[in-house]
Amino acid sequence: MKIHTGTNRIKKFYDNISRVAFVLAIAVLIQALVLPEKANGADTSNLTVIIYSSASISLNWEDNLTGEKYYVVEKKVDSGTFQTYSSPPPNSKTAYDSAVSAGHTYTYRVWVMNSEGRRYLYTPELSFRTDEVAKPTSLTLTPVSYNQIDISWGYADNKAYNTIIERRTESGTEWIKLASIGIGQNTYSDKSISSGTKYYYRVRACSGSTESVKSAAYPEEGKTAYSYLYKPTDFYGIALSGYSIKLNWTDNSSETAFIIERKSPKSGEFEEIAVVPQNNNSYIDSDAELEAGVTYQYRIRAVSGTTNSEYSDTISVTNTYLKAPGILSSSCTDGKNIQLAWEDLTDNETGFEVWRKTGSNTVWELYETMGRNATSFTDQNISLQDTYTYKVRAKINDNSVYSDFTNVTTVWSVTIAAPSDLTYEVVGAAQVNLHWKDSSMSEAGYNVERKQGLSGKWYTIGYLEEDVVSYIDKWVNTTDVYFYRIKVYDKSNSINYSNEIAVSLKTPEAPTNLQANPISSSEIKLTWEDNSFNETEFVIEAMQFYSFREIGRVSANTTTFTQQNLVSDVTVTYRVSAVTGSNRSSTSNEVVASAKKYITYSDVSSVKWAETAISNLASRGIFDTKAGSKFYPSQNITMGEYCAIIIRSLDLGMVPAGRYADVTSKHKYYKEIMSAAKLGIISPDKDNRLYPDKAASREQAGLMLLLAMKAKGTPFPDEDGGLLKQFADYRTISANTADKIADVCAAGILSGRIINGEVYLQLSGKVTRAEAAVIAYKAINLYDKNM
After folding, report:
1. 781 in the same domain as 662
2. Which of 244, 266, 495, 588 is most exposed, with the fewest beta carbons within 10 Å of its own?
3. Do 709 and 643 lie in a common domain?
4. 648 and 677 within one domain
């Protein structure tokens, strides 16, 4: 019985195990058939909802699958069971539901039916209430600067939600999430923008750590704002006279115009005074209301269409003329100090300002202030192997009176002087001979470096000993452009580079658009367009009868030539070609011209020394005197007519503007007198008088001509008063003007008068009309020589 009983127990045990195994198998089968199975890998998506109102929503997911048959959207209300709501087709990303209402909790999930007919759970479940978020009701955009737009928004009934900010550009169509803002904060500053660009913004409320529940966007189409343009910088002003102020600035934007505003002590408010066209960087305020010695405030901004820049810094300018310092030079020979030097050309400044930029920095800073009569400055705060840029201006303390700036000079902080004046000549079909000047006394040698094309790399092609100043490159072809520079080095490994030059043996492109302009009875001026980058000179040819002959050559990049000593009314044909080494371009178009008609007067035979000058200027239309009538060469010339002669001769005419006690618009030479005053060639006295009908003295004529030539940009010799000792009356010359008169004499403009065998300047003497013509004629020739 015991054995029988044990057998039954064993049988019963195995029966129980069989029942458990069966149950487990059934459970596994049920799980496989009923429980959701996820898609493989990344083939799933988050589920988000956009609530448009308490009765309308959209569900959104990503379509990360390929080959699916359709999606299945299931919906559960409160604690109910999931029911199939819709079956969107393949590639769907959205499902809409308008069968919802406030006060309920809705739960959604999305399934996908794959190509094998198996159903996978594609998204996690998402639960929410339709009154969980509400879209914003206001959006305000405020441009602050070129790189910032401030954004603020609000909700109805002062409710608070987490907020999503979305942005797109004018050219884009896709909205990008810009930022997520926490609950209770309703402002944001967008500092990731570009200058002068139109942006679209919209905002929406959201909830949940994953921002899966969102409101509709406000506004759906977005709201626009332009970021500001870059504002003008380096804004400053100087008085050109007691009645005009010149403003200068740096243009930093793609504007269509600049708006300039001025505030005077009388008005107390900024008023618009000018709209300046795009790409300009200066403006002369010559308003008749300007008063000498009065301080005015200015500001400027750029505009383009509906957007603009911020205002520049406000500057104060006192309407008192202060002459700018002379040429600014810089040098660095030890790598530790940079020496600046300039000329002090005024005697009423109280000091000078030194401005500096370092390396690639584009912002000028006021670096140092110097005292009265200073002419030099040593900058000891420099780093080796860096670049520094300087400019200087004079000032009068506490009065906002400043001169214009000097020229800008840039210097390397190096310890060895660079080779200078690197040039070349073509010495064969494929050879270039380089030449330079040895500027250092301590070099250990030179390296000749070359690159092919603008984007090429520099390679050393020659290693030279000290004091060598030439090198022949024998490996040059006629198709590439080569760049050369010379590197000098010393035993301490200090280096410096020469200027760079471009060399090409390609046949240069021919000049085009050759034009001939008769400018007098003996001169024709030619102009053309330079279409080549590698010419070494231009050859000018002329034909009067049957064949062309060469009449002159000009250096590379020159586009003008004046033929002189022509016979009036004789027809000449011209053409121009470019030259590089032995290669010569084809010729330009041909032009035909003749000098202007020779003009003379009935009474100039008594002044043979002035006859050529008078005739030349007459053919240019400088005089109002009719041809063939009397010129009255010995008559004293008035200040007004002298202004007219030099303004017309040097083509310095400007738009007339201004007001003086003794010059009205009815004056014969009103336009020329106003131009001369605006350029600082003449200045009024304390009673605002110019005395246009008073006879001009030789001193006045010389000084006015000097100022006119400087306004034209023509360099003059730099002499001191010692040059004037050659004249018998030099002791009578004022010390205040001696140096300037010496410059005029050194240029050959003003010469002496022989009296009893001695040469006198007679600066107090009056200028005749014949002398005025000779002075203007010499000035024209000096200008043409320096062109």
Report:
1. yes
2. 266
3. yes
4. yes
